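Notes continue from the previous slide.

Worked example: a multi-chain complex. Inputs as given:
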Amino acid sequence: MPITAIVLAAGEGTRMKSSHPKVAHKLLDHPLVWWTVRTAREAGADRIVVVVGNGADEVRAIFANDPDVTCVEQKERLGTGHAVRCVRDELGAFSGPTVILYGDTPLIRPETIVALVEETRTNHNACTVLTMCPPDPTGYGRIRRDADGTVEAIVEHKDCTPEEQASLTECNSGIYCFCGGRLTDNIDKITTNNAQGEYYLTDMVGIYREMGEPVSAVCASDYSEMLGINSRIQLAEATKVMQRRINERLMSEGVTMLDPDQVWVGADVTVGRDTELLPQTMLWGATAIGSDCVIGPNTRLTDVTVADGCSIEETVGYETVIERDVTVGPRAFLRPGTHLLAGAHVGTHVEIKNSTIGEDSKVPHLSYIGDTTMGSGVNIGAGSITCNYDGKHKSPTTIGNDVFIGSDTMMVAPVTIGDGALVGASSCITSDVPADALALERSKQQVIKGWAAARRKRMQEED
Ligand code: UD1
Ligand code: MG
C-alpha cells in the first residue's frame, strides 16, 4: 500500500529573526524541509505533500524539480489540524498509511517512521502516535492513558491541569501515522474549543477513542530525533547531530578523519575506503570521492567527482571531474567544466575554468587556464595564462600533446599550439604555433659590460 507523507512547513519561525522562511534555512548543504522530505522518501513514502505558508514561494522553489512532492498552501495558520484539512480540501481524500512530519524537525530517522507505519498496519490503527520522554516536557502535548495503558487523548500543555502538567511526562512528538481514509472522513470533527483557539490535529486521538477506533503509541528511544528547530542556536545543534551521524557512518565504512568535528559532508556525498578527510574540509552536493585519496585541509568541493588515489589540498572546486592519481593544490580554484585527466597536476595559486588538462600534464604555479583543451604530457611554466576574454567574447585555446610553455606566457585566444611545440618564456602568443616549432616573442636582450659597476662608482663619488 503506498505511503503518503504530509510535511507541515507553514510556520513563521519568528525566533530565527530572518527574512526567509524557517524551513528554507540550511542544515549542512540542504534546506531543513529537504531533509524531512528525504527521510519520508527513504521510509517508503511515494507521495509527499508539503504544506507551505510563510515564504511559500521560497519553499516551493526547493522542490521545483521533484516530481514526488506536491506543495499545498495554507493561507492562514489556524493549527496543525487545519493544515491537514487544507491538504484534504486541495488534493481530495487520501488512503493508505499517512504519516505527519514537520519541515523543522529534520533529524527523524527513516527506521522510526517505518516502525510507526508497521504498528499502524499490524493493529489496523486509525492512528499511531510517536511519543517521547524529553528531560523537560514543558510546552509539549501530553499523552493521557487510561487504567489499562491505552492512549486516551493528547492534551496540549496549555490545556492540562497543573497536576497533569507535572504527572504526565510522556509527550507527543507531533509525528503520527494515520489511516488515510479514516483521517479524511473525520478531520472535520476537530473544533477550536481549546486554550489556543486552534484546530489541533492532536484532537483526532480523542475523537477516534470516542468512535471506538484503535489508537496506539510507539515511544521513541532517541529523543534527539524529534529535536525541532526554532532558533539559530537549535539549528547549529541539529547541524552538529547530523554532522556526527554522517561522519560516523563514513568512518564505519572505512574513511579516516583526523578530527571529525572539523569535517562537514553533505547528505548525498560518497567517500571511498582508505580516503582521509583532513580538517576544515566541506564536501557538498553531488560530490563523490574515490578510494585512497587525501582531501584537505581547508578544502571545499561542490558537485565534484574525484577518482581513486588523488590528493586535493587547500582547494575550492565546483562542478569538476578529476580522474585517478591527480594532485591539486595547495590553493587551487577549480571552476565549473574543469576536467583533470589521470596523473595531471594542478598546483599552487592556479585557477582552471571550463578546461581539460590532459593525462600527466602539469599546471604547477600561478596560472589561469580558461576555455582550454590541453593534450597529455604538457608543462605550463609558472605564471602563464590563457587570455580567453576580450571584454566581450570568450575564445578557446588548444594545446597539443607534449607542449612546453615557458614561464610567464600569455596565450591570446583563439589560439592553437601544436603537438611538441615549445614556447619561450615571457612570450605573448597571438597566432597559432605549428607542431614541433619554437615560438619566441620578446625583445632582444642587451648586455652592456661594466655598466652597473660604473654606476656604483659614480654614486659613491656623489656622497
Ligand atoms: C505540536 C503538537 C504537540 C506536540 C508538539 C511537538 C498540536 C496541536 N500540538 O505542538 O502536541 O507535543 O507539536 O513538537 O499539534 N504548522 C503549520 N500550520 C499551522 C500550524 C502549525 O504548518 O497552522 C506547523 C508549524 O510550522 C510547526 C508545526 O506545524 O512546524 C507544529 O506547530 P505548532 O503550532 O508549533 O505546534 P506545537 O505547539 O509545537
Ligand atoms: Mg503552537
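Summary box: The chain has two domains: 4-226, 232-439. The longest helix spans residues 232-252.
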